[in-house]
Amino acid sequence: MEKNEVYDYLARIYLDKQPKAQEEKKGALRQIGFPVFLIVAVILFFSFYFIWRLPVRLVKPQVQSLQINAGSQLIRIKYNFNNSDLKRAGYSLNFADLDVSKFSVLGFQARHEIKHGPLNLRVEIENRRGEKAVCYVRGISGKWNSFEIKLSDFSGISEWAGLTEVSFVVEEWNALNKEDTVYLDEIRFSRY
Fold first, then answer.
1. What is the pTM of this model?
2. CATH number attached to the domain at 65-190
């Protein structure tokens, strides 16, 4: 055999076998590729569907607390029951239908001026229906302390979406010192 014949023979053998091998590989890839393509397409479809259908509330940040701003100074309740016919002194925060239905606690910081003897404070809440409820906070001292009242403790309020007033009241019968000043700060509604 001559050189050209050997080259032709090898080329013919090589060319005859190569296309068959490539066709077999393409066929195998087609058989594997379609199910993989189908699975990937289904996963992508459901992923986009569920992301699109997610409720907006999951995207919105959840408010953990609502701070009540009563001005740049502390709330001050000054009282003198010694020479007065008044039996109560207090401070009220008025709202236009404040929605606190997503919160569970009313919190605040308080202290009184005279260092000796604890003080008890009456906390009143009223809603737009005219429903009123009262809770007492005991043990307000001369140092700043945080106090929290569960909204569920205010029995008598059935609707928390329309809060109109929160009042802090010192009553004569409940005050050890008949003349004093109570300071309140950081009044807030929170989730816990």
1. 0.66
2. 2.60.120.430
